[in-house]
Amino acid sequence: MKKCVWRVLTIVLAIVGCVTVLLLVGSSPNGEAGRKGNAIALKAPPFISVASADAGQRSGTSFLETEAGIAAYANAGQPITLSRVRPLFRTIERETSEYLIGSVRLAAYPETEDPHAYVHRDGWVVAYYLNDEPTSKIIGWQEYDAEGLASTKLEDVITLIFSEIGAVPASISYYDFEYPNATYLMIVADAESDGDRWDSFQLQIPGSFIVYERSWSHSSYDATSQFKLDGAMISQFNHCGNCWRAFYGELQRSQLAPSILHTIELFNDESCGDWGICGQSYCAIALVYREGP
């Protein structure tokens, strides 16, 4: 049985209970976006004019403001030969001599999990999900372990592209094109691997926060699993036998209202088998927000 961890964050969020991990994602230690406590700052890429598509905006990027949602970006520090990275794309949606836009396959995930990517020949790479997809989709549960989540699927795409050209990102930063006024991203996650067991934690959002998006992720491997918020069923899986599944969605303000202590419950029901190996269940809530005065 896992060790119960008690965490309380009074400045950003109140998180109370047997929490497997408080998971925050974002830039590398020397990244441009930076951290504030346990949150990741969201910062527009330097080549994007959020206010308007002015004459100085790099060609091929104006679509990001209308199509992209949550995004990660980095610069390779060297020119990118587009023909070299083209085979990494599952689909190509737009292609010029200066940039590529399309979806990139990740070996550990099905096609439905493919992030999009914008790759410019001058070294910029932006990995993103569309603005009709929840922010929580960035979570890569297949990389989740006892230490938490080392990266997101967006970071995995950037690393994959950089690896192909022999580069390493000095930093990876985050930005939400759908909510340009948002300044922070936070993800709180829980996992359960013991059979026939409920786990839970509580979360409270300060009333001063302006929350633009509340989204959730629920995943399981070889387990029957349930994910509840304040007793209401959000998502559930039946045992499917040696398979991995994940669902994502958004929550309404009324479901995760500020200044209220909410209870998140995760159920993992799977016999541990002859070898003592149990199925696993995961859940998370992602918040895109701005701190109020």
**How many β strands by DSSP?**
19
- Shape by Cα distribution: globular
Distance between the termini: 42 Å
Domain module tally: 2
Major sheet: arrangement of strands: 2-3-12-19-14-17
Note the beta-strand portion: 35-45%
Secondary-structure content class: mainly beta
Radius of gyration: 19 Å
Please tally the helical runs, counting DSSP H or I stretches of 4 or more residues.
Answer: 3
String of helices and strands: EEEHEHEEEEEEHEEEEEEEEE
Largest sheet: 6 strands, antiparallel
State the low-pLDDT regions, or none. Answer: 1-12, 15-37, 50-56
Give the fraction of residues assigned to helices: under 10%
* pLDDT averaged over residues: 82
Overview of this protein structure:
This protein is mainly beta. The chain folds into 2 domains: 14-20 and 184-290, Sandwich (Jelly Rolls), CATH 2.60.120.260; 35-176, no CATH class. It is 7% helix and 40% strand. The chain is built from 3 helices and 19 strands. It has helices spanning 64-67, 82-85, 153-164, and strands at residues 14-17, 35-36, 39-41, 68-75, 89-95, 99-104, 116-120, 124-130, 144-145, 148-149, 173-176, 184-192, 197-204, 210-221, 224-229, 232-237, 244-251, 262-269, 280-290. Strands 2-3-12-19-14-17 form a 6-stranded antiparallel beta sheet, with no helix packed on it. The chain is globular and about 55 Å long. The model is unreliable at 1-12, 15-37 and 50-56 (pLDDT under 50).
